[in-house]
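[stage:ingest] chain + small molecule (3,4-dihydroxybenzoic acid)
[stage:ingest] validated
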Amino acid sequence: FAQAAPFKIGFILPMTGQSASTGRQIEAAAKLYMAQNGATVAGRKIELIIKDDAGVADSTRRLAQELVVNDKVDVLAGFGLTPLAMATAPIATQAKVPMVVTAAATSVITTASPYIVRTSFTLPQAAVAMGEWAGKNKIKKVVTLVTDYAPGIDAEKFFKSQFQLNGGEIVAEIRSPLKSPDFAPFLQKVRDAKPDAVFVFLPSGQGAAFMKQFAERGLDKSGIKLIGTGDITDDDQLNDMGDVALGVVTAQHYSASHNSPMNKKFVQSFEAANKFRPNFMAVAGYDGMRVIYKALEATKGKGGGDDLLAAMKGQVFESPRGPVMIDAQTRDVVHDIYIRKVERVGGQLWNQEFDVQKAVKDPGKLGA
Ligand code: DHB
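[stage:predict] done
[stage:export] tokens:
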């Protein structure tokens, strides 16, 4: 009776470079999931392979090729930035290997390959919720400030259209570079435009530097309210941001302070194992593992790209973020979007959820 071959999950993540916190968070979460749920599924030993692409698309593509051809992985996973996911999509399609996106969040990603399933989020989900909240909460004039690449453009576009629908006016649209940004000149432009609020999207890892410059330039005392997608008050860095973050309102699908028994257990176990707080990248990695485990179970350990993919579509489950569904048509994540405000509770800074939109599908795919 031959031993069944291990089931290989090949994560490609930025473990070094500007987006290293994304890799660190997702690796920690994937390992926590395995520690809690066992390293054997339907008789197959789970083998986690982690490769560092340093956030460089050429490396992601090469590593994906190697994982598929040499390691013969059963699933590809990870993808810390949109260009890295887009670079890998054709490889997943050609190899018929499911590609579980646990970070990158531009709407279009899931359309790049029928083998992509996403457990992270989409920028339009959060941006639309924020546009509506701002319009309904006495904010009339807004400057948008986003990182100049695909998810930033998604955030800008979807915030703008929903905010305008709710009676708001966009007075300036500013984009800052992805690489090593200096926010000072852009913050000066925000100041000069004298809006009621500035709506900001930055990728995970840049929030603390932004907040520091926001305070240094006195914008926190200027009467210009700071709002955004939850990427700017990222739980990975939030607790070190200081008073400048207090009162910042964002929309997102995950807060480490989400009030559910499952999340309390998740945060507690995660912090015990890692000495840092899980963020929205961690929860996507954790849920990505869940989707893979259940798919392997559904195939009774057989695996196979098409059968795994079929078993990933339509999964409904409780996540530390709240209820989640993988939309069978779009293969994208459907989840609740919370409106949160940063508050100090028990001596620490948290994104405190105070409103919710239930079961939000990606607005980027509603044919608008
Ligand atoms: C993307 C990366 C992030 O770190 C983030 O917070 C949102 C989106 C991306 O590149 O898709």
